[in-house]
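Z., the sequence and structure:
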Amino acid sequence: MDTENAKYYFATYRKLVKAYSNYIMKELEKENLSPNEVEVLSYLSITTKASEIAEISDVSKALISRSVKLLKSKDLINISLDTTDKREQTLSLTEKGETLAKKIEDSKTKFFEIAFKDFSQDEAAVLKALLQLMTNNLRIE
């Protein structure tokens, strides 16, 4: 692969990530949330552990901790200590947080519907396979 194509691919990737973030934040602009707070709320559908959210999202535990504190102060999440490891925080959505998490999920769905609107099933499968190949080559989990 020549480096010019590689530069294009990664520049395009950065633009896609930025477009995704901008779209989600515009959809949620009235909610007064930071991008990191949105991520924490999003990942609560996958795990309830703050440390696992940090690992999955590839950000520091300190940044997740700050976001958790802010979300707690906004009455969007509840925090409790894990029963087996007192150093671990277990998070859960409040009723207000559940409503907001649903709005985030709906915004993500709308973004992907827009981004993939002209893709055939085969094209989407090829893209997925190519991205998986890249992550395998780079040994990214």
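Residues 55 and 119 are 31 Å apart (CA to CA). The mean pLDDT is 92.

Let me know what you think.
H.
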